[in-house]
UniProtKB/TrEMBL annotation:
<dbReference type="GO" id="GO:0004519">
    <property type="term" value="F:endonuclease activity"/>
</dbReference>
<dbReference type="InterPro" id="IPR043128">
    <property type="entry name" value="Rev_trsase/Diguanyl_cyclase"/>
</dbReference>
<dbReference type="Pfam" id="PF17917">
    <property type="entry name" value="RT_RNaseH"/>
</dbReference>
<dbReference type="InterPro" id="IPR041373">
    <property type="entry name" value="RT_RNaseH"/>
</dbReference>
<dbReference type="InterPro" id="IPR050951">
    <property type="entry name" value="Retrovirus_Pol_polyprotein"/>
</dbReference>
<keyword id="KW-0255">Endonuclease</keyword>
<protein>
    <recommendedName>
        <fullName>Reverse transcriptase RNase H-like domain-containing protein</fullName>
    </recommendedName>
</protein>
<keyword id="KW-0378">Hydrolase</keyword>
<keyword id="KW-0548">Nucleotidyltransferase</keyword>
<dbReference type="GO" id="GO:0016787">
    <property type="term" value="F:hydrolase activity"/>
</dbReference>
<feature type="domain" description="Reverse transcriptase RNase H-like">
    <location>
        <begin position="49"/>
        <end position="141"/>
    </location>
</feature>
<keyword id="KW-0540">Nuclease</keyword>
<dbReference type="InterPro" id="IPR043502">
    <property type="entry name" value="DNA/RNA_pol_sf"/>
</dbReference>
<dbReference type="GO" id="GO:0003964">
    <property type="term" value="F:RNA-directed DNA polymerase activity"/>
</dbReference>
<keyword id="KW-0695">RNA-directed DNA polymerase</keyword>
<keyword id="KW-0808">Transferase</keyword>
Length: 141
């Protein structure tokens, strides 16, 4: 919630919790050092003001999805997670939509109280609500 790109940073560390043998690799060490650095240099989070609109910036990559809840370009909270194996096979369009859905669910308690704008770098998602045909997954969203 407080560290930007948290799930991407800790991905090598979370894999150490599997049932496989524990192997402290170079990538795990680099992830640990980066997590320490990010934790010490976290941006100052803004205080919520429910009289102002929220901004929800979402993005997806090949490995994870993330979002930041903001007001006036100041972060309030971060949210991210690793993609599951089957989610990694989704199209970039669906990954970006998954990031938005994840963020809407994660920050629902804040967004339900007022106005908000969703920001994404995937322009074709603007047409999502106006599409005539949606696949089953998109219909559930």
């Amino acid at each position: 919630k407080f560290v930007k790109r948290f799930s991407q940073i800790v991905a090598p560390l979370t894999s150490l919790t599997n049932k496989d043998a524990f192997n402290w690799s170079k990538s795990a060490h680099v992830a640990f050092e980066e997590l320490k650095k990010e934790t010490c240099s976290c941006p100052v989070l803004a205080v919520l003001d429910f009289s102002r609109p929220f901004e929800l910036a979402c993005d997806a990559s090949g490995e994870g999805i993330g979002a930041v809840l903001m007001q006036n370009q100041h972060p309030i909270a971060f949210g991210s997670r690793k993609l599951k194996e089957y989610e990694k096979k989704l199209s970039i369009y669906d990954k970006e939509m998954l990031a938005i859905m994840h963020a809407l669910i994660k920050f629902r308690k804040y967004l339900i109280c007022g106005r908000f704008v969703v920001k994404t770098d995937h322009n074709s998602l603007r047409l999502f609500l106006h599409q005539k045909e949606l696949n089953d997954r998109q219909q559930r969203w």
